Amino acid sequence: MKKIQRLRNRLLPILFGFLSVSAVPAADLTFSPQNPQVEIGGKITVSGTSGAVTCENAVWKVFSDRNNVTALVLSEEEETLWVGTSSGLEQRNGATGELVRVFTHLDGLPNNSVRVLEIDGSGGLWIATGRGDLAHLSFSQKNTLCSDLSDEQCQNILTSKRAAIIIAGGSTDDSNTLWDSTAAISNYIYKMLNKRGFDNNEIYYLSPQSYADFNGDKLDDCIVDAPATPRCRLTTVENPIAERSLNVDDVRQAFAYAKTKGQLEQPLYVFFTNHGGTDRFQLSKDIYLYVDEFKSILDDYKNETGNELALVIDASYSGALLQKLVGPNRAIISSTGEGLAYFDRTNKQGFSRFGLDKGYLIV
Fold first, then answer.
1. How many other CB atoms sit within 10 Å of the CB of residue 163?
2. What is the separation of C-alpha 356 from the centre of its chain, rounded to a whole number of angstroms?
3. 3-class DSSP state for residue 58?
């Protein structure tokens, strides 16, 4: 009951913002949680059948981007506000109410009319729709892993800080015969990180394709971070960024993200998949990350954070590149020596996927 009361108290300022009213510098507000009716005059009154909460001198924010609201729930960590509407499930920032993403039937929701929301206690969300369907939205593997671990191991999974970067190099046009394999391998890397307890906010995924399906349900899993605006968020931003090839600044931005994670309990895992040369990585057609520049990025990250780093290079000539990237507290694994790397384009296999399957590449 205390938990419910705490969440309700946290929700009230945000809930009031969904009312279609103008900003009022000083208002007496009476609120009833059941069957609310709104009156606007010299003061603002929200009344109903039972209970009351009074708010004076309220500061109002109107969310003009909202749909017809039918249900609200705040996540246990209070970072996410879930809003059920007649047109889908909205994910909003729990502190500001800013729209992050909208889930609809295109994302696997059985029906767009959301009626009831309930946090499951394990980081997921139960959703009841107007058609009578029940759906479950899950995000983290941490609690699943805990079921097979000791209390100490579980606590480490739940509380330790970790981060990873996936760089899927190349372009998506027909001239790049390796792209399908690169995308499949990169998605598999994400899947294996997820199975080992990495949450989406602990993985920075760089790809020229703004959508990805890592769990095989043929839906966009909203896991690609840059450079384009992810397809799942196109409706939530005013000026979405179109898909384009990767460049060096995108790699720098990925490591800037990693710095925000601070001191890690594990190495920063970095996976690069695409073509390589004796002195460069190919990010896309005619765009390269030269080895000296990449070493500078790695050194800068190490100097600023002090974290260990594990780099897996799945590219031709990666053995030659490895020798030029060495540094303290840095483990580098290459898929080949000073020759070509092997990719099975039929089965979309490569060194990284094989190593992850065998459990060699992630602690």
1. 23
2. 21
3. coil
